[in-house]
Amino acid sequence: MTNVDVSGAPPLAPAILVALKEYEARILASVVELEGCIERAAASGKPVNVNSLFYWFAFDVMGKFAFAESFGMLENEQFHHIILMLRRALKLLGPFSPVLWLARIGLTLFPRSWRMADWNNMMAYCREKMDQRIKMEVDQPDISSYLIDDARKNGFTPADKKYLNGDAVTVIIAGRHDLPHLSAVIDETLRLYPPLPTAVTRETPPEGEKYFVKADEFIPERWYSKPEMVKDRRAHVPFSVGKSNCIGKNLALMDIKLVIASILKKYHIHFDPREDGHRVFTELQDHFTATPGPLSLVFKDRDD
Predict the structure, then answer these.
(1) What is the dihedral of CA 142, 144, 149, 150, to 10 degrees?
(2) Which residues have C-beta within 8 Å of that of residue 8, sequence separation ≥ 6?
(3) pTM here?
(4) E-strand spans in 93-250?
(5) Residue 276 has what DSSP assignment?
């Protein structure tokens, strides 16, 4: 089994490391399903819409850890209806992410409008699934196990139940071979294209970027072999910090590393002849989290 280092600069607490180790086998099961989808496309020689594939993978994994069951999208090779609702709802929330209070007013005043209804139906689904998860006995702990145990220690107050429902939504929306270059590629990508395009406030001084040398250039080496190119690491917080720190940060990094290592080990990857990759950036949309533009790739087995 691949042992992926998911730690960033600071070391992870022992409990988190144990939990991630327990999660790894379940993530790898979804990686195998993802590989199956790619393998079938590679055998036919057809380009693959990787946007959908990676979306399916990410949400199938999150379903496992929030509700102890996958959404089954990789298996069925189609979107689950609740994820389609989520995507439509986030198209509305994205533009309002700098002023989330305005979105909350809309949700309160117009709960039955089509986009608002999608959001409220998705929330109702998460509440129902969390109710089922609370009553469920699981053989292997997941993210919800720790959240539920903590709520039980507090006496399971109405506020605890409200927080559990919110955490379920957050998990769904929001991962040791030492692979320094892979980690650096991920860090550099997140630096240039953060997962929250507008919700996190930033300030650039009049003289321009002062935290990174050649800030507009993609240079992964700045994170390991050229540390002089990073003037202050505190400026790189793609998952936010403090109370706003992403609950799924380490799980997400594990997902990314396992998927990239698995795909690159097996396939040569090329653009669809009709693609040049620019639409990923030019058609990127802010749906609260960043939603890249379409990308179609051709996978060829390295053994061929």
Answers:
(1) 120
(2) 253
(3) 0.68
(4) none
(5) -
